[in-house]
Design a protein that fits this description.
The chain is of the alpha/beta class and 360 residues long. Helix content is 53%, strand content 12%. The longest helix is centred in the middle third of the chain and has 33 residues, at 119-151.
Amino acid sequence: MMYQRTSVGLDVHARSVVACGLDGETGKVVERRLTPQHTELLDWIRKLPPPVAVTYEAGPTGYGLARFLDSEGVACLVAAPSKLQRPPGDRVKTDMRDARHLAKLLHLEQIVAVKIPSPEQEAARDLVRAREDVRADLMSARHRVSKLLLRQGLVYYGGRAWTCEHERWLRSHKFASLGLQLAYETAFDTMLATVDRRDRLDTAIAAMAADSTFTPVVTRLACLRGVSTLTAFGLAVEIGDWHRLTGRSIGAYLGLVPSETSSGQSRSQGSITKTGNGHVRRLLIEAAWHHRPPYRPGVTLRRRWDLASPAARARGQHGNRRLHARWLSFDERRKRVTVANTAIARELAGWCWSLAVLED
């Protein structure tokens, strides 16, 4: 709990900041439209009756303002937009009204703050998200190549696609039409350039995962099936502080729990909520599929176990056996596989949490 006499709400945009200061003792409201210059904003805040606390919504402007204010001794909370309470009948939204609303919520201690990552954690998170963007770009680039060939009646039957053999098959095509040939070369070159970008990012992520503050967590998470270095590093940097969660709350935090509408004696559950971090949720959904085949630890998984402590290795093996048994149970009950995999991903999130907070 923190005490402040003046509560300041900021509606922050790229080229403007609308500020509202609420004096908790006199009820006086001071409003101002400022530029995004941090020093100008700080000068205005220091003219208000101290102590002062500030809040603004998390958004595309990032955490630079919060870090600057904290370094200057001004308490600053970055509010989670999805947790802001707003009356259902309030249909008018302006910058000044948003700033007033934030100031009132801060005064009433109704702000749910997000954790501000350190610059190192934010840089690692940007790296992981760049890899995620490249993955989507590569999928689109490959689709453009394959669909262009499909329109010409050319389909690859020589095995798995996007292998070295498949690439040689792609390079063998020449078209008589100059326009078609140029379109194909452009699409193919774009795909190769995207593959190169992905490989460079993979190398950078592997290097950071092996020697950074995230290395202990990555090593422990990699004891689970389906959680390779890329997946473990993505989970570590996206969640950050695992201790703010519990094994029971992490599923809801990542949107892996069923939505529910209950009233009186009726109770209805629907699809998962899909709230929280979508990137982490996708990583867990993909990793959960790896627990369906028979549990026979391979060379790669055993090498990851060799890097971990005995406690982490034992817990990872326990989790792997448990999750595979859950898959067998779902298959015996003929559970729809997509629903079953989501349930496995929800439990896998709990196992990841238990390994992340494990003391070596």
